[in-house]
Backbone:
């Protein structure tokens, strides 16, 4: 697949309208009508790229460049709902301390931004059929573009399920989220859109698999990183099946990803293109998420020019399962205030991509699935393919040394190390709490209390707080109040306790 130009990427977001799930919000974000936006093959592709742009830059409080939903915001919120990254400022404290309510901005704008992306994808999906019928695009172009939009739609709906619904691993018949399968780009569609209920978690996951199965069949096999591909659809399906506890399915999807490999630990973060990177949202000096949405600004060391709002927590830094000579510790840097991630390195022009799906994640998913099924040697081999590239040979796990429960624990610990500062911790807390393996959100280092590097020394007295039992209503976020109030005919059912 040919690379798209950054210039095209920037202007693409102007070509199609968007609405949030608030179906009464029909003010268009476009300056070109849909009929003209798909009048040529070039404009059609620009409309496709506009969906990526909306996902990367996002929409927050009527402004862009805040990293919602798949820029820095998704990574930060995924990390700060957990215990391994640490909140050092007010910016994400609501998320870190579980202080959210139906009006708090972090969760409200994540909901709104995700549904805006979904609606943009649905506009493109419907318009592609007209463009094909009128000879504007070829069948091959239609298929590739459709696959990309189905992937984005599935990725967005899955993010909503992780944030606003209970896990599949608990009860698939519990309340899901509205799965939007059609575009809302006309007042006449408001009533139809308002009628889309939350459905069940199981129904939503079945639709996720349906979207991704079709996307897999439609798209090319390619190692393109910044556009969805067949491999991206397969990898996302493996992630979804992990949440569904479909262990055989995870193994099957992993086995298809033959054109990817685990790399040296730093390779996935040197521009985003390596055999470990399956899909990332692009950024650049021309199309960046701004200071408030840039991963390097938020996560980086202030001594290196970053804002440093989010640090590595002493909880993971001092964890006994993280070997002191692990090479992944080199992806951090220390300063007087603590330890910061160096996975994102450009706090000036904010060009770091958002690593959305890496092969190492899927390898560890397959390792876990094998451990769950009792395939201990296969699981250990997969675990070691990730771990052994980072630890001394003397620290390698020997064959038969762990047992089933020990192997499963080692895999879950490895995910915490390998995917640190990539926003994946909440997904694991979500599914493992639903299963009963975790009791909910663990204790975290107390927000805005770690003022010195001394808290990262062995034996330090780290103040703790902000745990949340799985049984608590606040384990899942509330549906935004504005969403419920703006649905006049069929308001969505609110999550319990709000």
Residues:
């Amino acid at each position: 697949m040919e690379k798209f130009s950054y210039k095209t990427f920037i202007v693409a977001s102007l070509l199609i309208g968007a609405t949030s799930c608030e179906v009464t919000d029909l003010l268009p974000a476009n300056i070109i009508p849909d009929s003209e936006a798909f009048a040529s093959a070039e404009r059609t592709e620009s409309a496709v790229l506009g969906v990526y742009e909306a996902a990367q830059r996002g929409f927050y409080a009527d402004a862009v460049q805040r990293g919602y939903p798949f820029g820095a915001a998704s990574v930060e919120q995924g990390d700060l709902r957990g215990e391994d990254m640490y909140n050092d400022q007010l910016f994400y404290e609501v998320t870190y301390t579980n202080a959210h309510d139906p009006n708090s901005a972090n969760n409200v704008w994540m909901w709104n931004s995700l549904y805006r992306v979904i609606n943009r994808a649905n506009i493109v999906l419907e318009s592609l059929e007209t463009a094909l019928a009128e000879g504007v695009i070829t069948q091959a172009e239609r298929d590739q573009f459709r696959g990309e939009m189905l992937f984005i739609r599935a990725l967005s709906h899955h993010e909503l399920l992780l944030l606003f619904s209970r896990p599949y691993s608990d009860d698939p018949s519990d309340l899901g989220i509205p799965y939007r399968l059609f575009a809302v780009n006309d007042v006449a569609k408001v009533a139809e859109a308002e009628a889309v209920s939350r459905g069940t978690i199981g129904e939503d996951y079945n639709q996720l698999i349906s979207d991704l199965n079709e996307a897999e069949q439609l798209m090319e096999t390619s190692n393109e990183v910044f556009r969805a591909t067949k491999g991206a659809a397969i990898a996302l399906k493996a992630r979804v099946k992990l949440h569904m506890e479909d262990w055989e399915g995870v193994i099957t999807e992993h086995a298809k990803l033959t054109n990817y490999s685990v790399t040296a630990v730093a390779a996935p973060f040197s521009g985003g293109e390596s055999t470990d990177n399956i899909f990332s949202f692009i950024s650049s000096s021309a199309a960046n998420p701004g200071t408030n949405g840039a991963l390097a600004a938020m996560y980086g060391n202030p001594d290196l020019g970053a804002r440093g709002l989010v640090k590595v927590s002493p909880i993971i830094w001092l964890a006994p399962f993280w070997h002191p000579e692990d090479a992944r510790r080199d992806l951090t840097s220390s300063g007087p205030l603590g330890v910061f991630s160096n996975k994102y390195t450009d706090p000036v022009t904010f060009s770091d991509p958002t690593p959305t799906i890496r092969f190492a994640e899927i390898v560890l998913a397959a390792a876990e699935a094998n451990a769950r099924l009792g395939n201990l040697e296969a699981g250990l081999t997969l675990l070691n393919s990730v771990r052994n590239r980072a630890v001394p040979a003397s620290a390698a796990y020997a064959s038969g040394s762990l047992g089933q429960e020990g192997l499963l624990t080692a895999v879950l610990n490895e995910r915490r190390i390998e995917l640190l500062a990539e926003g994946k911790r909440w997904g694991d807390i979500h599914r493992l709490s639903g299963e009963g393996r975790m009791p909910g959100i663990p204790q975290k280092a107390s927000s805005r209390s770690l003022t010195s590097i001394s808290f990262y020394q062995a034996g330090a007295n780290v103040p703790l707080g902000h745990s949340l039992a799985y049984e608590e209503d606040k384990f899942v976020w509330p549906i935004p109040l504005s969403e419920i109030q703006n649905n006049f005919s069929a308001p969505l059912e609110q999550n319990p306790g709000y």
